[in-house]
Protein backbone atom coordinates (compact mmCIF):
# COMPACT_ATOMS: atom_id res chain seq x y z
CA UNK A 1 0.00 0.00 0.00
CA UNK A 2 1.19 3.56 -0.62
CA UNK A 3 3.01 5.51 2.01
CA UNK A 4 6.63 6.28 1.10
CA UNK A 5 8.39 9.61 1.48
CA UNK A 6 8.90 12.04 4.30
CA UNK A 7 5.51 12.03 6.02
CA UNK A 8 7.09 13.29 9.23
CA UNK A 9 7.26 16.95 8.28
CA UNK A 10 5.01 17.06 5.25
CA UNK A 11 7.96 18.09 3.12
CA UNK A 12 8.59 16.99 -0.40
CA UNK A 13 8.63 13.26 -0.99
CA UNK A 14 10.89 11.26 -3.24
CA UNK A 15 10.97 10.37 -6.93
CA UNK A 16 7.53 10.18 -8.51
CA UNK A 17 6.01 12.31 -5.77
CA UNK A 18 8.91 14.79 -5.54
CA UNK A 19 6.72 17.89 -5.74
CA UNK A 20 4.03 16.83 -3.23
CA UNK A 21 3.56 17.45 0.48
CA UNK A 22 1.38 15.89 3.19
CA UNK A 23 2.27 12.39 2.01
CA UNK A 24 0.56 10.92 5.08
CA UNK A 25 -2.69 11.34 3.14
CA UNK A 26 -1.57 8.40 0.99
CA UNK A 27 -1.16 6.02 3.92
CA UNK A 28 -3.66 3.13 3.83
CA UNK A 29 -6.37 3.35 6.49
CA UNK A 30 -9.02 0.85 7.59
CA UNK A 31 -8.79 -2.89 8.12
CA UNK A 32 -11.42 -3.82 5.54
CA UNK A 33 -9.90 -1.59 2.87
CA UNK A 34 -6.32 -2.69 3.53
CA UNK A 35 -7.33 -6.36 3.67
CA UNK A 36 -8.69 -5.96 0.14
CA UNK A 37 -5.49 -4.37 -1.12
CA UNK A 38 -7.10 -0.93 -1.30
CA UNK A 39 -9.50 -2.00 -4.07
CA UNK A 40 -12.59 -0.48 -2.44
CA UNK A 41 -13.71 2.43 -4.63
CA UNK A 42 -16.81 0.45 -5.65
CA UNK A 43 -17.46 -1.05 -2.21
CA UNK A 44 -20.07 0.13 0.30
CA UNK A 45 -21.20 -0.26 3.88
CA UNK A 46 -18.31 0.33 6.33
CA UNK A 47 -16.97 3.45 8.01
CA UNK A 48 -13.40 3.25 6.69
CA UNK A 49 -14.63 3.71 3.12
CA UNK A 50 -15.23 7.44 3.58
CA UNK A 51 -11.44 7.93 3.52
CA UNK A 52 -11.24 6.15 0.15
CA UNK A 53 -14.49 7.12 -1.56
CA UNK A 54 -17.04 9.10 0.48
CA UNK A 55 -19.86 7.71 -1.67
CA UNK A 56 -19.16 4.34 0.00
CA UNK A 57 -21.00 5.43 3.16
CA UNK A 58 -24.10 6.80 1.37
CA UNK A 59 -26.04 3.55 1.90
CA UNK A 60 -25.33 3.29 5.64
CA UNK A 61 -28.33 3.82 7.93
CA UNK A 62 -28.96 4.93 11.52
CA UNK A 63 -26.03 6.21 13.60
CA UNK A 64 -22.63 4.64 12.93
CA UNK A 65 -19.48 5.01 14.99
CA UNK A 66 -16.16 3.83 13.57
CA UNK A 67 -12.72 3.45 15.16
CA UNK A 68 -9.46 2.38 13.56
CA UNK A 69 -5.99 1.81 14.97
CA UNK A 70 -2.95 1.05 12.83
CA UNK A 71 0.70 0.32 13.51
CA UNK A 72 3.43 0.22 10.92
CA UNK A 73 7.18 0.69 10.50
CA UNK A 74 9.34 3.01 12.59
CA UNK A 75 6.82 2.98 15.48
CA UNK A 76 4.32 4.97 13.42
CA UNK A 77 0.75 4.75 14.69
CA UNK A 78 -2.49 6.21 13.45
CA UNK A 79 -5.97 6.58 14.88
CA UNK A 80 -9.32 7.30 13.28
CA UNK A 81 -12.57 8.10 15.06
CA UNK A 82 -15.66 8.80 13.00
CA UNK A 83 -19.38 9.37 13.55
CA UNK A 84 -21.92 9.11 10.72
CA UNK A 85 -25.55 10.17 11.07
CA UNK A 86 -28.28 9.16 8.61
CA UNK A 87 -31.16 11.53 7.82
CA UNK A 88 -33.86 10.25 5.49
CA UNK A 89 -34.63 13.75 4.20
CA UNK A 90 -31.12 14.91 3.24
CA UNK A 91 -28.69 11.95 3.36
CA UNK A 92 -25.77 11.08 5.62
CA UNK A 93 -23.62 13.54 7.54
CA UNK A 94 -20.34 12.60 9.20
CA UNK A 95 -17.43 13.97 11.17
CA UNK A 96 -14.02 12.28 11.38
CA UNK A 97 -10.67 12.86 13.06
CA UNK A 98 -7.57 11.16 11.63
CA UNK A 99 -4.21 11.31 13.44
CA UNK A 100 -0.83 9.96 12.35
CA UNK A 101 1.64 10.06 15.25
CA UNK A 102 5.33 9.40 14.69
CA UNK A 103 6.10 9.41 18.40
CA UNK A 104 8.62 11.39 20.42
CA UNK A 105 12.26 11.81 19.50
CA UNK A 106 15.03 13.25 21.72
CA UNK A 107 16.82 16.40 20.60
CA UNK A 108 20.52 16.09 21.41
CA UNK A 109 23.38 18.57 21.50
CA UNK A 110 26.85 18.18 20.00
CA UNK A 111 27.97 16.28 23.10
CA UNK A 112 25.10 13.81 22.80
CA UNK A 113 23.19 15.12 25.80
CA UNK A 114 19.40 15.34 25.56
CA UNK A 115 18.31 18.97 25.32
CA UNK A 116 14.69 18.66 24.31
CA UNK A 117 11.88 16.53 22.96
CA UNK A 118 10.55 16.52 19.39
CA UNK A 119 7.07 15.36 18.43
CA UNK A 120 5.80 14.98 14.86
CA UNK A 121 2.16 14.42 14.07
CA UNK A 122 -0.06 14.81 11.03
CA UNK A 123 -3.81 15.17 11.31
CA UNK A 124 -6.96 15.94 9.41
CA UNK A 125 -10.53 16.83 10.35
CA UNK A 126 -13.15 15.65 7.86
CA UNK A 127 -16.79 16.64 7.37
CA UNK A 128 -18.76 14.26 5.13
CA UNK A 129 -21.99 14.55 3.17
CA UNK A 130 -23.22 11.50 1.23
CA UNK A 131 -26.50 10.41 -0.33
CA UNK A 132 -28.36 9.29 -3.44
CA UNK A 133 -28.67 11.22 -6.69
CA UNK A 134 -31.07 8.51 -7.86
CA UNK A 135 -31.54 5.03 -6.42
CA UNK A 136 -28.65 3.54 -8.37
CA UNK A 137 -26.26 6.51 -8.19
CA UNK A 138 -24.63 7.53 -4.92
CA UNK A 139 -22.37 10.49 -4.20
CA UNK A 140 -20.15 11.65 -1.37
CA UNK A 141 -18.10 14.73 -0.49
CA UNK A 142 -15.48 15.30 2.21
CA UNK A 143 -14.28 18.70 3.25
CA UNK A 144 -11.12 18.41 5.32
CA UNK A 145 -8.65 20.50 7.23
CA UNK A 146 -5.13 19.10 6.86
CA UNK A 147 -2.32 19.88 9.32
CA UNK A 148 1.36 19.04 9.68
CA UNK A 149 2.47 19.69 13.26
CA UNK A 150 6.07 19.83 14.56
CA UNK A 151 6.53 20.53 18.25
CA UNK A 152 9.79 21.10 20.11
CA UNK A 153 9.80 21.03 23.89
CA UNK A 154 13.13 22.38 25.11
CA UNK A 155 16.13 23.18 22.90
CA UNK A 156 16.09 21.80 19.36
CA UNK A 157 19.16 22.88 17.41
CA UNK A 158 18.28 24.16 13.96
CA UNK A 159 14.56 23.44 14.48
CA UNK A 160 11.56 25.38 15.65
CA UNK A 161 7.94 24.45 16.25
CA UNK A 162 5.55 24.99 13.37
CA UNK A 163 2.12 24.04 12.05
CA UNK A 164 1.34 23.87 8.33
CA UNK A 165 -2.38 23.98 7.50
CA UNK A 166 -4.46 23.72 4.36
CA UNK A 167 -7.93 22.71 3.17
CA UNK A 168 -8.96 20.02 0.70
CA UNK A 169 -11.91 18.06 -0.70
CA UNK A 170 -12.68 14.47 -1.65
CA UNK A 171 -15.40 13.74 -4.23
CA UNK A 172 -16.83 10.30 -4.99
CA UNK A 173 -19.51 8.49 -6.98
CA UNK A 174 -20.79 4.90 -7.04
CA UNK A 175 -23.12 3.64 -9.77
CA UNK A 176 -24.87 0.26 -9.46
CA UNK A 177 -25.48 -1.28 -12.86
CA UNK A 178 -28.53 -3.23 -11.71
CA UNK A 179 -28.65 -5.67 -14.62
CA UNK A 180 -25.57 -7.37 -13.22
CA UNK A 181 -24.34 -7.14 -9.59
CA UNK A 182 -21.52 -4.73 -10.41
CA UNK A 183 -20.89 -1.33 -8.89
CA UNK A 184 -18.62 1.22 -10.57
CA UNK A 185 -16.86 3.80 -8.42
CA UNK A 186 -14.82 6.92 -9.02
CA UNK A 187 -13.18 9.42 -6.71
CA UNK A 188 -10.89 12.43 -6.62
CA UNK A 189 -9.10 12.73 -3.29
CA UNK A 190 -6.97 15.41 -1.62
CA UNK A 191 -7.96 18.14 -4.07
CA UNK A 192 -7.15 21.43 -2.42
CA UNK A 193 -4.81 24.30 -1.73
CA UNK A 194 -1.02 23.87 -1.48
CA UNK A 195 0.58 23.17 1.86
CA UNK A 196 2.45 26.39 2.69
CA UNK A 197 5.75 26.54 4.53
CA UNK A 198 8.25 29.27 5.34
CA UNK A 199 10.21 28.83 2.12
CA UNK A 200 8.05 26.64 -0.15
CA UNK A 201 4.58 25.61 -1.21
CA UNK A 202 3.89 21.93 -1.80
CA UNK A 203 0.76 20.80 -3.66
CA UNK A 204 -1.27 18.08 -2.00
CA UNK A 205 -0.98 14.50 -3.33
CA UNK A 206 -4.22 14.65 -5.33
CA UNK A 207 -5.26 11.26 -6.69
CA UNK A 208 -7.83 10.11 -9.25
CA UNK A 209 -9.26 6.65 -8.73
CA UNK A 210 -11.74 4.43 -10.57
CA UNK A 211 -12.86 0.99 -9.50
CA UNK A 212 -15.27 -1.87 -9.92
CA UNK A 213 -16.82 -4.20 -7.33
CA UNK A 214 -18.49 -7.39 -8.55
CA UNK A 215 -20.70 -9.24 -6.08
CA UNK A 216 -20.53 -12.74 -7.52
CA UNK A 217 -22.54 -14.32 -4.70
CA UNK A 218 -24.79 -12.29 -2.40
CA UNK A 219 -26.21 -14.32 0.53
CA UNK A 220 -28.91 -11.78 1.33
CA UNK A 221 -30.47 -12.07 -2.13
CA UNK A 222 -29.76 -15.68 -3.11
CA UNK A 223 -30.31 -17.51 0.18
CA UNK A 224 -26.78 -18.79 -0.11
CA UNK A 225 -24.63 -19.43 2.93
CA UNK A 226 -21.58 -17.94 1.25
CA UNK A 227 -20.86 -14.58 -0.33
CA UNK A 228 -18.07 -13.49 -2.64
CA UNK A 229 -17.05 -10.10 -4.01
CA UNK A 230 -14.13 -9.23 -6.28
CA UNK A 231 -12.82 -5.71 -6.80
CA UNK A 232 -10.26 -3.82 -8.85
CA UNK A 233 -9.09 -0.20 -8.63
CA UNK A 234 -6.84 2.01 -10.74
CA UNK A 235 -5.30 5.11 -9.17
CA UNK A 236 -3.13 7.81 -10.70
CA UNK A 237 -1.71 11.22 -9.91
CA UNK A 238 -3.98 14.15 -10.74
CA UNK A 239 -1.15 16.11 -12.36
CA UNK A 240 0.58 13.28 -14.18
CA UNK A 241 -1.94 10.74 -15.44
CA UNK A 242 -0.59 7.82 -17.43
CA UNK A 243 1.03 5.33 -15.07
CA UNK A 244 -1.70 4.12 -12.69
CA UNK A 245 -1.30 1.90 -9.67
CA UNK A 246 -3.42 -1.27 -9.73
CA UNK A 247 -5.19 -2.73 -6.70
CA UNK A 248 -6.96 -6.10 -6.62
CA UNK A 249 -9.14 -7.33 -3.78
CA UNK A 250 -11.53 -10.08 -2.70
CA UNK A 251 -13.97 -10.59 0.16
CA UNK A 252 -15.37 -14.03 1.02
CA UNK A 253 -18.21 -14.18 3.54
CA UNK A 254 -19.83 -16.97 5.51
CA UNK A 255 -23.40 -16.34 6.61
CA UNK A 256 -22.81 -12.57 6.49
CA UNK A 257 -20.97 -13.00 9.79
CA UNK A 258 -17.38 -14.02 9.09
CA UNK A 259 -15.39 -12.42 6.27
CA UNK A 260 -11.99 -13.38 4.87
CA UNK A 261 -10.24 -10.83 2.67
CA UNK A 262 -7.18 -10.83 0.44
CA UNK A 263 -5.68 -8.28 -1.89
CA UNK A 264 -2.61 -7.19 -3.79
CA UNK A 265 -1.42 -3.68 -4.64
CA UNK A 266 0.84 -3.10 -7.64
CA UNK A 267 2.31 0.32 -6.88
CA UNK A 268 4.62 2.45 -8.99
CA UNK A 269 6.52 3.39 -5.82
CA UNK A 270 7.57 -0.24 -5.40
CA UNK A 271 6.01 -0.42 -1.93
CA UNK A 272 3.07 -2.60 -2.90
CA UNK A 273 2.46 -6.21 -2.05
CA UNK A 274 -0.12 -8.65 -0.68
CA UNK A 275 -2.49 -8.11 2.22
CA UNK A 276 -4.84 -10.31 4.24
CA UNK A 277 -7.83 -9.51 6.42
CA UNK A 278 -10.44 -11.05 8.67
CA UNK A 279 -13.74 -9.60 9.85
CA UNK A 280 -16.69 -10.50 12.05
CA UNK A 281 -20.08 -8.81 11.83
CA UNK A 282 -22.92 -9.51 14.25
CA UNK A 283 -26.10 -7.54 14.70
CA UNK A 284 -25.06 -4.00 15.75
CA UNK A 285 -21.25 -4.25 15.61
CA UNK A 286 -18.37 -5.36 13.42
CA UNK A 287 -14.65 -5.82 13.97
CA UNK A 288 -12.00 -6.15 11.26
CA UNK A 289 -8.30 -6.95 11.27
CA UNK A 290 -5.76 -6.83 8.44
CA UNK A 291 -2.07 -7.05 7.81
CA UNK A 292 -0.06 -5.80 4.86
CA UNK A 293 3.18 -7.27 3.55
CA UNK A 294 5.31 -4.76 1.65
CA UNK A 295 9.04 -4.30 1.03
CA UNK A 296 9.58 -1.99 4.01
CA UNK A 297 7.92 -4.24 6.57
CA UNK A 298 9.80 -7.22 5.16
CA UNK A 299 13.13 -5.41 5.43
CA UNK A 300 12.58 -4.00 8.93
CA UNK A 301 10.71 -6.94 10.43
CA UNK A 302 7.94 -4.60 11.59
CA UNK A 303 4.29 -5.49 11.17
CA UNK A 304 1.81 -3.27 9.32
CA UNK A 305 -1.53 -4.00 10.99
CA UNK A 306 -4.96 -2.37 11.04
CA UNK A 307 -7.71 -2.96 13.60
CA UNK A 308 -11.19 -1.50 13.01
CA UNK A 309 -14.31 -1.53 15.15
CA UNK A 310 -17.73 -0.20 14.24
CA UNK A 311 -21.12 0.00 15.94
CA UNK A 312 -24.59 0.88 14.66
CA UNK A 313 -27.50 2.04 16.76
Q: Can you tell me about this structure?
A:
The chain is mainly beta and 313 residues long. It has 3 helices and 16 strands. It has one domain: Porin (Beta Barrel), CATH 2.40.160.60. 5% of the residues lie in helices and 56% in strands. The strands form 2 sheets. A 14-stranded antiparallel β-barrel has the order 1-2-3-4-5-6-7-10-11-12-13-14-15-16. It has a two-stranded antiparallel sheet with strand order 8-9. Strand 14 and strand 15 form a beta hairpin. The longest helix has 6 residues. The N terminus is likely disordered.
User: In what range is the share of β-strand residues?
Assistant: over 45%
Coarse shape: globular
Q: Give the C-level CATH assignment.
A: Mainly Beta
Helices, by number, come to 3
Return the CATH topology: Porin
- Overall structural domain count: 1
Computed structural class: mainly beta
Topology of this structure?
Blueprint: H1 31-35, E1 63-71, E2 77-87, E3 91-108, E4 114-134, E5 137-154, E6 162-176, E7 182-192, E8 195-196, E9 201-202, E10 207-217, H2 219-222, E11 226-237, E12 245-254, E13 258-266, E14 273-282, E15 285-292, H3 295-300, E16 304-312
Antiparallel strand pairs: 1-2, 1-16, 2-3, 3-4, 4-5, 5-6, 6-7, 7-10, 8-9, 10-11, 11-12, 12-13, 13-14, 14-15, 15-16
Summarize the structure.
The chain contains 3 helices and 16 strands. With 313 residues, the chain is mainly beta.
Name the descriptors.
single chain; Porin; 14-stranded antiparallel barrel; 313 residues; mainly beta; two-stranded antiparallel sheet
